[in-house]
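[Structure tokenization] protein backbone as discrete codes

[Encoding] learned vocabulary of local backbone shapes

[Begin record] amino acids and matching fold tokens:

___
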Amino acid sequence: ADCSYRKTILLGVIIRRDSNNKREKKTKMGRGKKRNFKHKGDDKGAKGNNWSQRRANKRQKTEFREWKFENIFFEHYYRNQLNGLLTNDEISAMFDCLKTPLPSTFRLNPTFKDYEKLNKLFENLPYLKDFLHQVEEVYPRQGSEANQNPTEDTKNADNDTEEQKAQTNTEETDNNQKMDQDTKPTIDQEPTLDQHPKEEEAEEEQLTLESLLTSSNFHKVTWYPQHITWQLTIGRNRLRKNTELRNLHKFITKACDSGLISRQELVSMIPPLMLDVQKHHLVLDTCAAPGSKTYQILEFLHSSGNDDDDIPTGAVLANEIDGTRACMLTHQLQRANSPTSLVVNHPAQCFPGLTGKCGEKVEFDRILCDVPCSGDATVRKLAMKWDDWNMRDGLSLHPLQVKIVRRALQMVKCGGLVVYSTCSLNPVENEAVVAAVLKQCKQEGIDVELLDTHDRIPGLKARKGLTEWFLYDENHEFKKSDKASDKEGSPLIHYGSFDKIPVDKRGLYRDTMFPLKDENGKDYPLDLTMRIMPQDQDTGGFYIALLKKVAVDEKKAEEARLAEEKEAEAEGKPQKKKKKFKKNVENFAPFDTSSIEMEWVKENFGLTKDFPEDLLYTQVDNDKKVYLVTPGLKKIMEANDNSEGPLDSIFLGVKAFQ
């Protein structure tokens, strides 16, 4: 007891040795005190903390280890999984590509009236160089550094789509315990990498605006519709920090703020293209934050059809479980000034059903499921994943991904499309999820067809989905930094079937992770799905599957739902409470068009009788702001009072009057 007491006392004591090692000075940190803090009255009232200078000195003294792109488990896992899809040379080329920084890409907004003129500006490189030299006069440099941009960290949301999703979800461990997705941990930041290590090496080479704006370094993406997407061969961090490229960076930033362009990773533009969105469609984005794909869907909603000046009649429902990310999503969609958008806050796997006034189901024409994933195909942007990668990330997220897609197929109308996509290379998160969804939907009375994705985007280089894959576990006799030649044996333990997995290790494994057969004993046509490999077009990795709901047996579907609820009660699973973010949730109601305020609006703005007054909404707690919506969005708002509970709305339409 005496020893324990002495140890407890020493925990609150700081021992410092002087340079001569002659004595020990013990100082206790009292409650509320800070290190080296001088109180008022000392040194003429100066605090003397000088924390920023101490941090600068510490950074100068810090010696970081040499970064190595090595992870024996990561490399062996994907060499085995992709062996039937790629040759050995192609796999080696893939790993070499993953060790390089990701190029920067941006897309012109086709709803902008003069977007074609802006596109021609980028095509004329000599004129573009002269134009960018004039940006210095419009936006003169501020401060001592040419690349100073205090708001830059808030402007990269569009280009960080998959990285943020990866950071949000890679450390989730057991999704049966994380049903509500109420915790979104971030990636460990030690050691901090402000930019890709390869970009730091490339900075030693002087890059000028003239050398960058050449046909080999700055080119148009030919497979994107209307040819409005452009790619720079340098990474976004190098573009931001290079003083010679300051004018180009300033122009891209200002154009993005104004909505003329959108910065987004090239492969993340593919899933919305698969949806084939039309003006009248009701679209649901189940996991929408940070909003680049949702913004792209809004572009399609406004630009599709013969007359681009017509306001669309459809709507886009953007869902995000995390309150903070939902606010980020709102900020991105406000750039569009579209009356079609609604941001809500719900778990995607148990999204509430919508019921109309007459009791009919309100179903969606298109649903995008860009689900949480391990994000191991984003290592070109997130170099830390080389060291952080492990197989448990994909195993833990598999059940959640299956539930999200199943729920989407329940809410889409017959004949509607559901796109499933991940920024992962792992077949457990890709093909295994699609096969499990097809099998479970068939058992529930939902007839789903897997469509061919390879002929929908001409010119896009893509590989077929895997039809065979394997499940492994890590051999703990190996370390991530080991090389295959250093030790005998394999760093991976192969499991041929679920029965061969040791009982004590079955916690994260599911039988749906193994290749499945349909009711006739045949393989599912998973080769119709699409894999984007990084080395093919100098991009990140991606996986896309396109599902079509053909028909549904209502009686069988209801029996399956009741059986699932009964099974959950028998197992004694406690019902999870949904985490609420009430500080962000807003309640909207139809605006009273007979009010005095509406009479004032009509008189001062000269509204005619053709103005759709029935499409005006206002906040319940703040009726000073009036929002305009589309008929499709009004249909969703009218179905808000449904039996499964109202939608937790955060943002609605476009502000019309205030």
The chain has a mean pLDDT of 79. The chain is about 30% helix and 15% strand.
